[in-house]
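Researcher: We plan to redesign the surface later, but first we want a full-length starting point. Tokens attached.
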């Protein structure tokens, strides 16, 4: 026990050797701070909201752009001049696309009026030509109705006077009106999609004002309104009500 205590005392009496650093070790390269600085302990040192400057050295990095071919050759690490020249030419050709001063052309702004389709004006044929064509078609429809009536008389085997006495005036008028109306609507509704015989004879046709093809509903509605004109003394036809309602007109087929 005594010997152990003696060894401890002798070790304490030994001189503490200092650590020797060579010349390559520089203390200035290290920025040591005590534990009471940083981690929130520096708030009291704020002045006007600005933290105290650190002891780190300000490293100013300056970058210079050398546009000479020699420096580009060195930076590229290519010793062959031919390869370098081709590479520089390709870089110069691409610089026009990646240059900051490149002018970007803006696409022209389109207005709403550019998309609007101009409506072609459809000029109506002369009223006298329209009336003449319609009159020809009405005569054809009346002839078809009269032919149907004659067919009934022929099938019955009676004379017309005897047939008239049996049927009566009122029933004959109703039958003639109904048959004429049916033939009239069918005639104009179907044939006006191209041209009725009266319109084809005078070189006229039915057309829409928007330039589209004529539909069956348009021709049927026109025929229905014109047949009502017989009862209304032709007033709808005078104001062209059938044309305004269906957006159609009778034009010259040129």
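Model: Full-length starting sequence:
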């Amino acid at each position: 026990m005594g010997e152990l205590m003696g060894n401890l005392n002798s070790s304490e009496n030994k001189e503490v050797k200092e650590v020797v650093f060579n010349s390559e070790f520089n203390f200035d390269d290290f920025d040591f701070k005590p534990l009471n600085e940083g981690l929130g302990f520096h708030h009291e040192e704020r002045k006007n909201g600005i933290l105290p400057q650190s002891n780190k050295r300000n490293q100013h990095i300056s970058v210079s752009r050398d546009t000479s071919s020699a420096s580009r050759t060195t930076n590229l690490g290519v010793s062959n001049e031919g390869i370098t020249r081709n590479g520089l030419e390709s870089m110069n050709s691409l610089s026009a696309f990646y240059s900051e001063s490149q002018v970007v052309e803006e696409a022209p702004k389109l207005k709403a009026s550019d998309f609007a389709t101009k409506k072609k004006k459809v000029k109506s044929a002369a009223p006298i030509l329209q009336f003449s064509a319609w009159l020809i078609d009405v005569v054809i429809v009346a002839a078809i109705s009269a032919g149907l009536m004659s067919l009934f008389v022929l099938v019955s085997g009676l004379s017309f006077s005897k047939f008239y006495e049996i049927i009566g005036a009122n029933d004959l008028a109703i039958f003639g009106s109904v048959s004429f109306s049916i033939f009239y609507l069918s005639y104009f509704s179907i044939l006006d999609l191209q041209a009725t015989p009266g319109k084809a004879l005078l070189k006229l046709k039915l057309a829409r004002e928007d330039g589209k093809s004529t539909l069956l509903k348009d021709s049927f509605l026109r025929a229905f309104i014109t047949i009502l004109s017989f009862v209304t003394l032709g007033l709808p036809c005078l104001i062209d009500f059938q044309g305004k309602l269906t957006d159609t007109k009778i034009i010259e087929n040129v």
